[in-house]
Amino acid sequence: MTEFFTSVSSRIAYEGPESDNPLAFRWYDADRIVAGKRMEDHLRFAVSYWHSFCWDGYDIFGAGTMDRPWVGPHVDPLNGAKRKMEVAFEFFEKLGAPFWCFHDRDIAPEGATARESARLLDEMVEEAAGHMERTGVRLLWGTANAFSNPRYQAGAATNPDPEVFVQAAAQVCHALEVTHKLGGDNYVLWGGREGYETLLNTDIDREQEQLARFLHMVIEHKRSIGFDGQILLEPKPFEPMKHQYDHDVSTVHAFLQRFDLMGEVHVNIEVNHATLSGHDFDHEVAAAFSAGIFGSIDANAGDDRLGWDVDRFPVSVEQMTLGMYEILKGGGLGRGGLNFDAKLRRQSIARDDLFHAHIGGMDTMARSLLAAASLIEQAELPAIVAERYRGWDADLGASILAGNESLSSLRDRALDAAEPVRISGRQEALENLVARSVERAR
Ligand code: XUL
Ligand code: CO
After folding, report:
1. Atom of ligand 1 lying closest to residue 268 CA
2. Which is the CATH superfamily of the domain at 33-378?
């Protein structure tokens, strides 16, 4: 195999916060024990195949800018796919990423027919199995790209034409089987075009029924092939569609309840999708744990001013600490992980830029883990929260919650009660506690 990333000759090492080697980790120390677990097992980092190896920097205004010699009309698609995979595994190994994630169409070219596409995918899955065996890199999740082909212009499962539903079913059936074959821990469904542009041509009742039926078929198939990984929906409010059905965690929760899918389907929360839906990342994580549907994370951030999905590598330790705190409080990532569904900026055209991006992202998340673990260890926040709700544990609160009171019994109590004593919410002091935990994280 010809080496592609020649400027990075060996595995990226941990050198500690004092290091100024740009190709070393300063915070991510895979074997370090944090809150009882190795850092690698807490964070379960994954590299996404599509942004890092399939995308060559094209945008709606211009052609690709990046050095990705396996992409383009001059390359034989199958040979290109094989070369791309060699390079991807060279990258995973040198970076020391324990996991990767892919869409069916990322790893194998699409053929002229469904049968041909399936054959090409099987061939590339064999290649992937060999690389995984050789390198020890594991699969965090697989998924199907049921949004790029023009047939999916009006959705996959939610398409007005059931023949399109058939094509999507075939793709997901196969992608689920190969995810199982490669030992994936999760299978993701991002509803790329499951939404609408205008209600003038859309029947949202039908479309949601179709989506629910599709998900039940996924669960049935998962059972029949013995796949015991998690099935994850990835919420996103819009882009590419104007309105997407999996708007945010709470919308997905309501959908799962309505269509009897609770316990079967969880969520893959993407940081920038949270931002786009008008929520903070930590809110989406907390909402998912509260609903019992937390699954995994796509750890790519947005931009404060740009209202689209910029998929940046995470750089804000403050933002990620708040998310990691909710994750640790909820019991950790479990079978989920932190997938960098993130891409380089279009001008980052040097081969080693991909290393700098992932090193920065992994260090940001590792430092956030340390800060969040320190917040948990100090235990000041839970004590303050418990004190704030103390009244609900005492007689009055307990009696209300137990159903022993009515509006009129409470009215009678209010008539003679003193004005409730207000106490400070102490937000700024609590934010300072978080800042201190970031400073303390070493
Ligand atoms: C799109 C997105 C996808 C999913 C997988 O915004 O996040 O890459 O993660 O289909
Ligand atoms: Co994503």
Report:
1. 9
2. Divalent-metal-dependent TIM barrel enzymes (3.20.20.150)
